Amino acid sequence: VYRHAAEASRAVAEQIAALIRERASQGRACVLGLATGSTPTGVYAELVRMHQDEGLSFQNVVTFNLDEYFPMQPEGLQSYVRFMREHLFDHVDILAENAHVPDGALDEREVAEYCRQYEAKIAAAGGVDLQLLGVGRTGHIGFNEPGSGKTSRTRLITLDRVTRRDAASDFFGEENVPQRAITMGVGTILDARQVVLMAFGEGKAGIVKQAVEGPISTIVAASFLQEHPNAQFVLDEAAADALT
Ligand code: F6R
């Protein structure tokens, strides 16, 4: 628990940078699972700063984003492809072919096969070393809404009403928020060797408590992280406020 989000973000960025450098010194790739949304923006800003000021290179980094709205064109205003370019990819030396974000512009008939291939690409890269997560007010990690099972894999999912309401301002009205998204599954996330979930602000305090101290259940996907051997919750004081 950190006093402020900025401090917490710097600590997580340090951890990621250390992993990237360690892998680079071994001549190995570093595979990162990445999240979008407001929570990780401070981490990305700090990683960009480290690239610019300290020469942190992303040439050995391979990334897989958690999710994307469906349907969504990559150049769409709310697209997670655009988000990742604006916050990270366009500002560091990551190779374009190493940065993966689920494709929201597919024909629906192609999605199931595409999701299988997304999983296969993660496996071919050697699996995710560190998965960065935020948490939604429904307890979702990625877009694994209530009902998502522990063994769920990358797939098309229907977004919860609460999630669509929370995204309403980004889309200029709830009615414009897509009904669905492509997301890595809970099982996909649990396969990462290390998981770092970040949550900031009083609005997350209730769901953080349920995820950390509540029963492990499909009602709160983040609660499955209790069973992960190397999962960290990185919080500011406000998000930690309801913990006992
Ligand atoms: C985003 C994602 C979501 C968000 C969550 C919290 O890629 O997978 O699970 O992390 O909805 O969003 P923010 O950070 O905007 O509160």
From TrEMBL:
It comes from the Bacteria. Keywords: Hydrolase. One of its GO terms (molecular function) is glucosamine-6-phosphate deaminase activity. Residues 5-214 form the Glucosamine/galactosamine-6-phosphate isomerase domain. The keyword Hydrolase applies. The keyword Hydrolase applies. GO terms for biological process: carbohydrate metabolic process; N-acetylglucosamine catabolic process. This is Glucosamine-6-phosphate deaminase. The lineage of its organism: Bacteria, Pseudomonadati, Planctomycetota, Planctomycetia, Pirellulales. The gene is nagB_2.
